[in-house]
Amino acid sequence: PYCWAKIGSRCPYPRKRTIKRRRIKLLFIFLLRRCSGHNHFLFTVAFIAMIGNYSFFLLLFVSVFISLANAKETISISPKTLNRSGDSVVIQWSDVESPSDLDWLGIYSPPDSPHDHFIGYKFLNVSPTWKSGFGSITLPLTNLRSNYSFRIFRWTQSEIDPKHKDHDQNPLPGTKHLLAESEQLTFGSAVGMPEQIHLAYAEKVNRMRVMFVAGDEEERFVRYGEAKEMLANSAAARGIRYEREHMCNSPANSTIGWRDPGWIFNTAMKNLNNGVRYYYQVGSDSKGWSEIHSFIARDKFGEDTVAFMFGDMGCATPYTTFIRTQDESISTVKWILRDIEALGDKPALVSHIGDISYARGYSWVWDEFFAQIEPIASKVPYHVCIGNHEYDFPTQPWKPDWAASTYGNDGGGECGVPYSIRFDMPGNSSEPTGMKAPATRNLYYSYDMGSVHFVYISTETNFLQGGSQYEFIKRDLESVDRKKTPFVVVQGHRPMYTTSNEVRDTTIRQKMVEHLEPLFVKNNVTLALWGHVHRYERFCPISNNTCGKTWQGNPVHLVIGMAGQDWQPIWQPRLNHPDLPIFPQPEQSMYRTGEFGYTRLVANKEKLTVSFVGNHDGEVHDTVEMLASGEVISGIKETTKTPNLKTVPASATLVGNSESNVSWYVKGASLMVMGVLLGFIGGYFTRGKKGSASANRWIPVKNEET
């Protein structure tokens, strides 16, 4: 409490002194708020100046503030090298002036991609400290066989372009104002390491196919055996790839959608013993080997069957991209992995019936998908059938007049190529694309597992009587040995029966009833499973849209497209009419729900049970049981279920917190004034013994964080 006019004496003008002090404090508060995003050193200087001798610290504060006026935004990453897919990088930024909730972080691979060719983005406001001009984002990344870089952009409301939208019609962020760009992030030796491992049954019962991706075509192998320490058997893997010129439309063949897919390797483990656990790893001595995985070989004489079945799962990404991704797929994979691990040494399989990754022309989404399913697909065979989002393109060879509005451009220009090369299912079905692209494969096939004969069909290519697919289905169903496999399960993507009122699919459903249903009824198909509609729905044993008076010969149809895609037809009642669902549930529909999940099939020679498992709790919510004779012995009529809105937490945290970067000038300034601060603080507390100390108490400035 000393007078500004005469240091060391009482001020003769206490009122003027108080006014001056208040004005200076207001100046400091203003400067504090302007510099709140820079560093804690400025806070310390300003607060001490407010309660002590102002002159020196006012000069010091103003000089540092002026130097900061020219400070440039910074961005850094840690670590700079990741080992494998799923490892996380922390991206930190600081010195962002006047932060906006539209400031965003772009994720790029390859790192020299044009600004608008990001693979994804996140707004900086996901960091709790973004308003202070600094923050951090933690991202788990997938190995795309190329380095990453990260860029921070400023985007303003006035620059929102209504014509520049993503798949969901949301505006894409603008790239006009680049604030900062990081150095490159590498995957080190992992570029050559095998990843995205997945299994499938081969033609012969004593074989298991394994596929994986690597960054170059150098020869790779699988080595396997009945003990981890003795992987004595080996087989060479053949590598193939597809090119941008094989894509038939945008965005798949555009510079935005295309990324190098790497080399897809394919081989089979042979001469496997029935029902035995095998250990295996893939790779090479020169490029490195994967972790050791294991699976249970198919048992030629086994009667037990376990299958996890669903459609339309897709994948989640730790960023927003050009298309909608499926966060619920994380829970689906988590619960299926739980069930697989609970089986112990019992064999099982996964059946994913169409709309696999939802990449739709953005090729890196396939990498995200295979990285996500590897924990289950490396343990059990992962079987698929084709859906509209893998295949449909404007010039596809089979598009009758009645299907003109059904088959569009849902494949995003992929025309079935990634699906055909990244998977290798049993059989040799294929259809030419009519262009440079290789023929579409994995269309229809079948295999036995335990007591069940599984059949996969394509609803995107010709299934009418007289076509090659129809003839395959007819021959296959007529040749089933019902003593060996008393249950027959047919699977395809678009449903023959559903209470979803999607008008454009009406004709295709009618054609399926006309051409395929007679084969199903005649050959006593047990179950018909479909996706496409993102719901779970179970029908009565049905034929010609009528519940059979007798159960024999009428398949039970299930729609199981509820594994991840979150676009849902509205089945729940409207708010102002809770008693009137938009799509009333007819008597043929025994149970339906809007909940995400998957189905679990368990069978032996006497009985087959299908259970619907909900993602929100991992518990069974619907069950139907059938005897080998075809009789349905359980599965009561249920009305529409409103899903529990409680969600299961994701197995991996996508966004985390970390301390912000400390700029170089903070360290320098701290060293420079450390002695001065210590001396000043000591002197201040000595003077503070005077009686006027209580009048100098200060209240901390509250910022947005507190």
Automatic annotation (TrEMBL):
E.C. numbers: 3.1.3.2
Protein family (similarity comment): Belongs to the metallophosphoesterase superfamily. Purple acid phosphatase family.
SUPFAM superfamilies: Metallo-dependent phosphatases, Purple acid phosphatase, N-terminal domain
Cofactor: Zn(2+); Fe cation
Catalysis: reaction(s): a phosphate monoester + H2O = an alcohol + phosphate
UniProt enzyme class: hydrolase
Ranges for domain Purple acid phosphatase C-terminal: 555-623
Entry GO terms, CC: extracellular region
Subcellular location, principal: secreted
An example Gene Ontology molecular-function term: metal ion binding
Signal peptide coordinates: none
Domain Purple acid phosphatase N-terminal, chain residue ranges per copy: 194-295
Membrane-spanning segments: 41-69, 664-685
Record domain Calcineurin-like phosphoesterase: where: 311-536
Name used for this protein in its record: Purple acid phosphatase
Organism whose genome encodes this protein: Thlaspi arvense (Field penny-cress)
Protein keywords: Glycoprotein, Hydrolase, Iron, Membrane, Metal-binding, Secreted, Signal, Transmembrane, Transmembrane helix, Zinc
Quaternary structure (record): Homodimer.
Subcellular location: Secreted
